[in-house]
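SAMPLE LOG
Freezer: B-3
Tube label: C17
Construct: single chain, 81 aa
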Amino acid sequence: MSLQRRCDIFKATDNQWYMILGNFEYANDTEDCSVYGPFGSQEATFKELDNHSNPGGMSVDDSGLEPVPKGAKRPNRNWWR
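STRUCTURE (predicted):
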């Protein structure tokens, strides 16, 4: 079963990619989401999405017109070192 939670992937005005992802099932409001990035490509953003449960759908915007989000985090996959 798909989890219906917010998942927006977009290119921002800094020419980098970001992902807004709901923190839990049915999360849709901004305060219930985390922002990930920056990523150098759409493909790199999709790779990060692979590390999270299926959101059940997404929106993708490659226009480069969205503002750079504040508070973006890029997970450290080597945190144990």
